[in-house]
Design goal:
Number of helices: 13
Strand content: 5-15%
Number of domains: 1
CATH class: Alpha Beta
Structural class: alpha/beta
Largest sheet: 8 strands, parallel
Shape: globular
Radius of gyration: 21 Å
CATH topology: TIM Barrel
Order of helices and strands: HHEHEHEHEEHEEHEHEEEHEHHHH
Oligomer: single chain
CATH superfamily: Divalent-metal-dependent TIM barrel enzymes
Helix content: 40-55%
Number of strands: 12
Bound molecules: L-rhamnitol, zinc ion
Protein backbone atom coordinates (compact mmCIF):
# COMPACT_ATOMS: atom_id res chain seq x y z
CA UNK A 1 0.00 0.00 0.00
CA UNK A 2 2.61 2.55 1.07
CA UNK A 3 4.77 1.44 -1.87
CA UNK A 4 1.93 2.10 -4.32
CA UNK A 5 1.49 5.61 -3.03
CA UNK A 6 5.27 6.17 -3.10
CA UNK A 7 5.38 4.92 -6.67
CA UNK A 8 2.70 7.44 -7.64
CA UNK A 9 4.52 10.29 -5.91
CA UNK A 10 7.76 9.51 -7.73
CA UNK A 11 5.84 9.19 -10.99
CA UNK A 12 4.64 12.78 -10.47
CA UNK A 13 8.30 13.76 -10.60
CA UNK A 14 8.81 11.72 -13.75
CA UNK A 15 10.65 8.95 -11.88
CA UNK A 16 10.03 5.23 -12.46
CA UNK A 17 10.50 3.41 -9.15
CA UNK A 18 10.30 -0.03 -10.77
CA UNK A 19 13.23 0.81 -13.04
CA UNK A 20 15.23 2.10 -10.09
CA UNK A 21 14.64 -1.08 -8.06
CA UNK A 22 15.50 -3.28 -11.03
CA UNK A 23 18.74 -1.36 -11.60
CA UNK A 24 19.74 -1.48 -7.93
CA UNK A 25 19.42 -5.27 -7.95
CA UNK A 26 22.15 -5.49 -10.59
CA UNK A 27 24.77 -3.48 -8.68
CA UNK A 28 27.22 -5.69 -6.80
CA UNK A 29 29.01 -4.25 -3.79
CA UNK A 30 32.39 -5.71 -2.94
CA UNK A 31 32.33 -6.15 0.82
CA UNK A 32 35.74 -6.10 2.49
CA UNK A 33 36.69 -9.16 4.53
CA UNK A 34 38.81 -7.15 6.97
CA UNK A 35 35.88 -5.62 8.90
CA UNK A 36 35.31 -9.08 10.36
CA UNK A 37 38.60 -9.46 12.23
CA UNK A 38 40.08 -5.96 12.60
CA UNK A 39 42.47 -6.38 9.63
CA UNK A 40 44.44 -9.20 11.29
CA UNK A 41 44.29 -11.98 8.76
CA UNK A 42 45.24 -15.62 9.23
CA UNK A 43 48.86 -15.61 8.33
CA UNK A 44 51.15 -17.14 10.94
CA UNK A 45 53.89 -14.64 10.31
CA UNK A 46 51.84 -11.43 10.37
CA UNK A 47 53.13 -8.57 12.44
CA UNK A 48 51.09 -5.60 13.62
CA UNK A 49 49.07 -4.03 10.87
CA UNK A 50 51.24 -0.89 10.51
CA UNK A 51 51.19 1.43 7.54
CA UNK A 52 48.78 3.74 9.31
CA UNK A 53 45.96 1.19 9.37
CA UNK A 54 44.37 0.79 12.77
CA UNK A 55 41.21 -0.87 14.00
CA UNK A 56 40.24 0.38 17.45
CA UNK A 57 37.85 -1.20 19.95
CA UNK A 58 37.43 -4.58 21.57
CA UNK A 59 33.84 -5.59 21.01
CA UNK A 60 33.57 -9.37 21.46
CA UNK A 61 33.18 -11.59 18.44
CA UNK A 62 36.21 -10.97 16.26
CA UNK A 63 36.51 -13.81 13.76
CA UNK A 64 39.60 -15.84 14.67
CA UNK A 65 39.60 -18.39 11.88
CA UNK A 66 38.61 -18.45 8.22
CA UNK A 67 35.60 -20.61 9.15
CA UNK A 68 34.43 -18.05 11.70
CA UNK A 69 34.93 -15.26 9.22
CA UNK A 70 32.92 -17.10 6.55
CA UNK A 71 30.13 -17.82 9.05
CA UNK A 72 29.98 -14.11 9.93
CA UNK A 73 30.01 -13.21 6.26
CA UNK A 74 27.17 -15.65 5.55
CA UNK A 75 25.14 -13.96 8.26
CA UNK A 76 25.93 -10.49 6.94
CA UNK A 77 25.10 -11.34 3.31
CA UNK A 78 21.80 -12.85 4.44
CA UNK A 79 20.79 -9.42 5.77
CA UNK A 80 21.78 -7.54 2.61
CA UNK A 81 19.53 -7.67 -0.46
CA UNK A 82 21.14 -8.62 -3.78
CA UNK A 83 24.12 -10.63 -4.95
CA UNK A 84 27.50 -9.29 -3.91
CA UNK A 85 31.25 -9.74 -3.87
CA UNK A 86 33.97 -10.23 -1.27
CA UNK A 87 37.30 -8.42 -1.21
CA UNK A 88 40.02 -10.62 0.32
CA UNK A 89 43.47 -9.46 1.33
CA UNK A 90 46.40 -11.83 0.82
CA UNK A 91 46.80 -12.30 4.61
CA UNK A 92 43.42 -14.06 4.65
CA UNK A 93 44.87 -17.24 3.19
CA UNK A 94 43.21 -20.43 4.43
CA UNK A 95 45.80 -23.17 4.63
CA UNK A 96 47.74 -25.37 7.05
CA UNK A 97 50.92 -24.39 5.30
CA UNK A 98 52.92 -21.31 6.28
CA UNK A 99 53.98 -19.79 2.98
CA UNK A 100 55.84 -16.47 2.99
CA UNK A 101 54.28 -13.57 1.16
CA UNK A 102 56.63 -14.31 -1.72
CA UNK A 103 55.51 -17.93 -1.79
CA UNK A 104 51.72 -17.77 -1.74
CA UNK A 105 49.74 -19.58 -4.40
CA UNK A 106 46.14 -20.00 -5.48
CA UNK A 107 45.79 -23.24 -3.57
CA UNK A 108 46.30 -21.39 -0.29
CA UNK A 109 42.98 -19.69 -0.98
CA UNK A 110 41.10 -22.72 -2.29
CA UNK A 111 38.56 -22.89 0.59
CA UNK A 112 37.57 -19.28 -0.15
CA UNK A 113 37.08 -20.07 -3.81
CA UNK A 114 34.92 -23.11 -3.02
CA UNK A 115 32.83 -21.15 -0.54
CA UNK A 116 32.41 -18.24 -2.96
CA UNK A 117 31.25 -20.60 -5.71
CA UNK A 118 28.66 -22.18 -3.43
CA UNK A 119 27.36 -18.82 -2.27
CA UNK A 120 27.45 -17.20 -5.72
CA UNK A 121 29.84 -14.54 -4.47
CA UNK A 122 32.50 -12.98 -6.70
CA UNK A 123 35.96 -12.55 -5.19
CA UNK A 124 38.21 -9.51 -5.40
CA UNK A 125 41.75 -9.48 -4.07
CA UNK A 126 44.45 -7.26 -2.55
CA UNK A 127 48.11 -8.00 -2.09
CA UNK A 128 49.11 -7.21 1.52
CA UNK A 129 52.08 -4.87 1.71
CA UNK A 130 51.77 -4.25 5.47
CA UNK A 131 51.84 -6.22 8.73
CA UNK A 132 55.19 -7.78 7.94
CA UNK A 133 58.79 -7.47 9.15
CA UNK A 134 59.85 -6.41 5.65
CA UNK A 135 57.39 -3.50 5.82
CA UNK A 136 58.45 -2.21 9.22
CA UNK A 137 60.17 0.85 7.73
CA UNK A 138 56.90 1.77 6.00
CA UNK A 139 58.74 1.21 2.75
CA UNK A 140 58.05 -1.76 0.46
CA UNK A 141 58.03 -1.30 -3.31
CA UNK A 142 59.85 2.02 -2.85
CA UNK A 143 62.43 0.70 -0.38
CA UNK A 144 66.03 1.74 -1.16
CA UNK A 145 67.11 -1.90 -0.62
CA UNK A 146 66.65 -3.86 -3.82
CA UNK A 147 66.28 -7.12 -1.90
CA UNK A 148 63.26 -5.77 -0.07
CA UNK A 149 61.76 -4.32 -3.24
CA UNK A 150 62.22 -7.66 -4.99
CA UNK A 151 60.50 -9.50 -2.15
CA UNK A 152 57.44 -7.27 -2.48
CA UNK A 153 57.50 -7.38 -6.26
CA UNK A 154 57.37 -11.17 -6.02
CA UNK A 155 54.44 -10.88 -3.60
CA UNK A 156 52.66 -8.60 -6.03
CA UNK A 157 53.26 -10.94 -8.96
CA UNK A 158 51.93 -13.91 -7.03
CA UNK A 159 48.86 -11.98 -6.01
CA UNK A 160 48.15 -11.14 -9.64
CA UNK A 161 48.37 -14.84 -10.50
CA UNK A 162 46.05 -15.72 -7.64
CA UNK A 163 43.56 -13.02 -8.62
CA UNK A 164 43.61 -14.17 -12.24
CA UNK A 165 42.90 -17.74 -11.18
CA UNK A 166 40.07 -16.56 -8.95
CA UNK A 167 38.67 -14.64 -11.91
CA UNK A 168 38.93 -17.69 -14.16
CA UNK A 169 37.26 -19.90 -11.55
CA UNK A 170 34.35 -17.53 -11.02
CA UNK A 171 33.89 -16.34 -14.59
CA UNK A 172 34.13 -12.64 -13.70
CA UNK A 173 37.22 -10.48 -13.43
CA UNK A 174 38.78 -10.37 -9.98
CA UNK A 175 39.93 -6.85 -9.11
CA UNK A 176 43.50 -6.91 -7.83
CA UNK A 177 43.91 -3.69 -5.87
CA UNK A 178 47.41 -2.50 -5.06
CA UNK A 179 47.95 -0.26 -2.05
CA UNK A 180 51.35 0.19 -0.46
CA UNK A 181 52.01 2.09 2.79
CA UNK A 182 55.25 3.61 1.54
CA UNK A 183 56.07 6.99 2.95
CA UNK A 184 58.14 9.05 5.34
CA UNK A 185 57.38 10.28 8.82
CA UNK A 186 59.49 13.36 8.33
CA UNK A 187 60.26 15.44 5.30
CA UNK A 188 62.34 13.45 2.81
CA UNK A 189 65.08 15.08 0.79
CA UNK A 190 64.52 12.99 -2.31
CA UNK A 191 60.87 12.33 -3.05
CA UNK A 192 61.69 11.79 -6.69
CA UNK A 193 64.01 8.87 -5.96
CA UNK A 194 61.36 7.13 -3.86
CA UNK A 195 58.70 7.70 -6.50
CA UNK A 196 60.97 6.41 -9.26
CA UNK A 197 61.56 3.24 -7.24
CA UNK A 198 57.83 2.75 -6.71
CA UNK A 199 57.22 3.32 -10.41
CA UNK A 200 59.88 0.82 -11.47
CA UNK A 201 58.64 -1.78 -8.98
CA UNK A 202 55.06 -1.42 -10.18
CA UNK A 203 56.20 -1.69 -13.78
CA UNK A 204 57.98 -4.92 -13.00
CA UNK A 205 55.07 -6.30 -11.01
CA UNK A 206 52.59 -5.52 -13.74
CA UNK A 207 54.86 -6.41 -16.67
CA UNK A 208 53.09 -9.68 -17.55
CA UNK A 209 49.85 -8.91 -19.35
CA UNK A 210 47.00 -11.00 -17.96
CA UNK A 211 43.53 -11.61 -19.36
CA UNK A 212 41.31 -8.66 -18.43
CA UNK A 213 38.35 -11.02 -18.34
CA UNK A 214 40.04 -12.64 -15.34
CA UNK A 215 41.89 -9.86 -13.55
CA UNK A 216 41.76 -6.09 -13.47
CA UNK A 217 44.64 -4.37 -11.68
CA UNK A 218 43.88 -1.24 -9.67
CA UNK A 219 46.16 1.21 -7.87
CA UNK A 220 45.15 3.03 -4.68
CA UNK A 221 46.60 6.36 -3.58
CA UNK A 222 46.71 7.89 -0.12
CA UNK A 223 47.34 11.28 1.38
CA UNK A 224 49.03 10.20 4.61
CA UNK A 225 48.95 7.65 7.39
CA UNK A 226 50.06 7.54 11.02
CA UNK A 227 53.84 7.31 10.86
CA UNK A 228 54.03 8.60 7.30
CA UNK A 229 52.82 12.14 7.84
CA UNK A 230 55.35 14.00 5.71
CA UNK A 231 55.18 12.15 2.44
CA UNK A 232 53.25 9.31 0.86
CA UNK A 233 55.12 7.98 -2.14
CA UNK A 234 51.98 6.73 -3.90
CA UNK A 235 50.05 9.98 -3.82
CA UNK A 236 46.93 10.75 -5.85
CA UNK A 237 48.82 12.52 -8.63
CA UNK A 238 51.33 9.67 -8.79
CA UNK A 239 48.67 7.02 -9.30
CA UNK A 240 46.34 9.07 -11.45
CA UNK A 241 49.16 9.46 -13.95
CA UNK A 242 50.19 5.85 -13.56
CA UNK A 243 46.69 4.48 -14.11
CA UNK A 244 46.15 6.62 -17.20
CA UNK A 245 49.47 5.61 -18.75
CA UNK A 246 49.22 1.93 -17.86
CA UNK A 247 45.51 1.35 -18.31
CA UNK A 248 44.96 0.09 -14.78
CA UNK A 249 41.95 1.01 -12.70
CA UNK A 250 42.31 3.88 -10.25
CA UNK A 251 41.05 3.22 -6.74
CA UNK A 252 39.62 6.25 -4.96
CA UNK A 253 39.41 5.62 -1.21
CA UNK A 254 37.24 8.29 0.42
CA UNK A 255 39.56 8.43 3.43
CA UNK A 256 42.68 9.05 1.41
CA UNK A 257 42.30 12.75 0.68
CA UNK A 258 42.30 15.97 2.58
CA UNK A 259 39.20 16.02 4.83
CA UNK A 260 37.65 18.94 2.95
CA UNK A 261 38.10 17.44 -0.51
CA UNK A 262 34.96 16.29 -2.30
CA UNK A 263 35.68 12.79 -3.57
CA UNK A 264 32.41 12.63 -5.51
CA UNK A 265 33.65 15.53 -7.63
CA UNK A 266 36.65 13.47 -8.70
CA UNK A 267 34.62 10.72 -10.37
CA UNK A 268 33.67 12.47 -13.58
CA UNK A 269 37.06 14.20 -13.77
CA UNK A 270 38.99 10.92 -13.51
CA UNK A 271 36.54 8.92 -15.60
CA UNK A 272 37.18 11.09 -18.65
CA UNK A 273 40.74 9.76 -18.76
CA UNK A 274 40.23 6.26 -17.36
CA UNK A 275 38.19 3.29 -18.54
CA UNK A 276 37.24 1.96 -15.13
CA UNK A 277 37.35 3.04 -11.52
CA UNK A 278 37.36 1.30 -8.17
CA UNK A 279 35.91 2.91 -5.06
CA UNK A 280 36.78 2.25 -1.46
CA UNK A 281 33.75 3.79 0.15
CA UNK A 282 34.67 4.87 3.65
CA UNK A 283 34.00 7.55 6.26
CA UNK A 284 37.02 9.45 7.45
CA UNK A 285 36.53 11.37 10.66
CA UNK A 286 39.27 14.02 10.90
CA UNK A 287 41.65 11.52 9.33
CA UNK A 288 41.50 8.16 7.50
CA UNK A 289 39.68 6.66 10.47
CA UNK A 290 37.66 4.16 8.40
CA UNK A 291 34.38 4.64 10.28
CA UNK A 292 31.39 2.60 9.10
CA UNK A 293 29.65 4.52 6.34
CA UNK A 294 26.45 6.37 7.10
CA UNK A 295 23.70 7.35 4.76
CA UNK A 296 25.11 10.87 4.80
CA UNK A 297 25.74 13.63 2.29
CA UNK A 298 29.20 12.36 1.32
CA UNK A 299 27.96 8.89 0.47
CA UNK A 300 24.87 10.27 -1.24
CA UNK A 301 27.00 12.58 -3.39
CA UNK A 302 29.11 9.62 -4.50
CA UNK A 303 26.02 7.66 -5.45
CA UNK A 304 24.47 10.64 -7.22
CA UNK A 305 27.61 11.11 -9.31
CA UNK A 306 27.72 7.43 -10.23
CA UNK A 307 24.19 7.72 -11.56
CA UNK A 308 24.21 11.18 -13.12
CA UNK A 309 27.60 10.67 -14.79
CA UNK A 310 26.47 7.22 -15.96
CA UNK A 311 29.46 5.55 -14.31
CA UNK A 312 27.79 2.53 -12.73
CA UNK A 313 28.78 0.35 -15.68
CA UNK A 314 32.49 1.09 -15.24
CA UNK A 315 32.91 1.71 -11.53
CA UNK A 316 33.49 -1.15 -9.12
CA UNK A 317 32.09 -0.32 -5.71
CA UNK A 318 34.19 -1.63 -2.85
CA UNK A 319 33.91 -0.80 0.83
CA UNK A 320 36.74 -0.02 3.22
CA UNK A 321 35.86 0.58 6.84
CA UNK A 322 36.45 -1.24 10.09
CA UNK A 323 35.10 -0.55 13.54
CA UNK A 324 35.87 -2.88 16.44
CA UNK A 325 33.70 -1.06 19.00
CA UNK A 326 30.45 -2.46 17.61
CA UNK A 327 29.30 -5.82 16.32
CA UNK A 328 31.46 -6.46 13.27
CA UNK A 329 28.65 -8.15 11.41
CA UNK A 330 26.38 -5.19 12.19
CA UNK A 331 29.04 -2.90 10.75
CA UNK A 332 29.06 -4.86 7.48
CA UNK A 333 25.30 -5.07 7.25
CA UNK A 334 24.53 -1.46 8.14
CA UNK A 335 27.37 -0.04 6.04
CA UNK A 336 26.57 -2.10 2.96
CA UNK A 337 22.86 -1.38 3.20
CA UNK A 338 23.67 2.32 3.50
CA UNK A 339 25.60 2.15 0.25
CA UNK A 340 22.62 0.48 -1.39
CA UNK A 341 20.19 2.99 0.06
CA UNK A 342 22.32 5.83 -1.31
CA UNK A 343 22.35 4.17 -4.73
CA UNK A 344 18.59 3.71 -4.64
CA UNK A 345 18.06 7.36 -3.77
CA UNK A 346 20.39 8.35 -6.58
CA UNK A 347 18.46 6.17 -9.01
CA UNK A 348 15.28 7.91 -7.86
CA UNK A 349 16.55 11.40 -8.68
CA UNK A 350 14.38 13.34 -11.15
CA UNK A 351 17.46 13.67 -13.36
CA UNK A 352 15.77 14.72 -16.59
CA UNK A 353 14.05 17.65 -14.95
CA UNK A 354 17.14 18.62 -12.97
CA UNK A 355 19.28 18.63 -16.11
CA UNK A 356 16.72 20.72 -17.94
CA UNK A 357 16.81 23.32 -15.19
CA UNK A 358 20.61 23.30 -15.04
CA UNK A 359 21.12 23.56 -18.78
CA UNK A 360 18.61 26.41 -18.87
CA UNK A 361 20.61 28.16 -16.14
CA UNK A 362 17.50 28.02 -13.99
CA UNK A 363 19.41 27.41 -10.79
CA UNK A 364 16.45 28.42 -8.61
CA UNK A 365 14.37 25.54 -9.97
CA UNK A 366 17.33 23.17 -9.62
CA UNK A 367 17.73 24.25 -6.01
CA UNK A 368 14.01 23.97 -5.29
CA UNK A 369 13.87 20.49 -6.81
CA UNK A 370 16.92 19.05 -5.06
CA UNK A 371 15.56 20.25 -1.72
CA UNK A 372 11.92 19.25 -2.25
CA UNK A 373 12.99 15.83 -3.56
CA UNK A 374 14.48 15.12 -0.13
CA UNK A 375 10.93 14.70 1.20
CA UNK A 376 9.98 11.94 -1.23
CA UNK A 377 9.17 8.53 0.35
CA UNK A 378 12.44 6.70 -0.30
CA UNK A 379 11.88 4.39 2.64
CA UNK A 380 8.75 2.90 1.12
CA UNK A 381 10.63 2.11 -2.11
CA UNK A 382 13.54 0.55 -0.20
C1 LIG B 1 44.78 1.35 3.51
C2 LIG B 1 43.98 1.12 2.28
C3 LIG B 1 43.71 -0.32 1.92
C4 LIG B 1 43.47 -1.20 3.10
C5 LIG B 1 43.19 -2.65 2.77
C6 LIG B 1 43.06 -3.49 4.00
O1 LIG B 1 44.78 2.65 3.92
O2 LIG B 1 42.78 1.84 2.35
O3 LIG B 1 42.69 -0.38 0.99
O4 LIG B 1 42.45 -0.67 3.92
O5 LIG B 1 44.14 -3.16 1.93
ZN1 LIG C 1 41.28 1.52 0.86
Amino acid sequence: MSYDSAKAQFADWGVDTEAAIARLKTIPISMHCWQGDDVRGFEEASGTSGGGIQATGNHPGRARTPDELRADLDFAYSMIPGQHRLNLDAIYMDTDETPGRDEIEFRHFAPWVDWAREEGIGLDFNPTFFAHAKADDNLTLAHPDKGIRDFWIEHGKRCREIAAQMGAAQGSACINNIWVPDGYKDTPVDRMAARRRLLDSLDEMLATPLDRAQILDAVESKLFGIGVEACTVGSHEFYLGYAIRKGTLLCLDMGHFHPTENIADKLSACALSLDELLLHVSRPMRWDSDHVILLNDDIQSMANELVSADLLGRTHIGLDFFDATISRTAAWVIGTRNMQKALLRALLMPLDRLRLAEDGLDFSTRFMMTEEAKDLPYGAVW
